Request: fold
Amino acid sequence: MQTRREAEVPWGVHALTALHGLGAIACVVMALGSAISERFRLSLVASPGSALMMDLFGPRVWIFLLAIAALLAALSYGSWHLRRWAWPLTIVCYSIGVVGGLWEVTIGIRAGLLAAAINAAVVAYACTRRVRAAYQSVRPKR
Reply:
């Protein structure tokens, strides 16, 4: 039986929470593989965007991936517990994704348009009244 509080949480918040958690796990796996094996690290170059990331970070890409994993884990935790800080952090992170995707388009990476659109959809969803209310109605635990 759902409590009244659980019924007020939009299903999309649960979906984003799960995606953040899965993304964190994937980034940890990629970071460990990249730190252990150069062959694994080089196998991550599957698109122009990932090639750009490899060119930028080189053998230390695992540090970047661990930072992204930590961010996604924090977002997952914050969304799961509907912490007030998770809502603006979600907006900021996905807004950066929009800008990054559009920047990729300007340098010739057409897939950046899809990334920008997906990130923009998450920002738009997170800005809806029901999602904002879900995060703002939680009282801090004492």
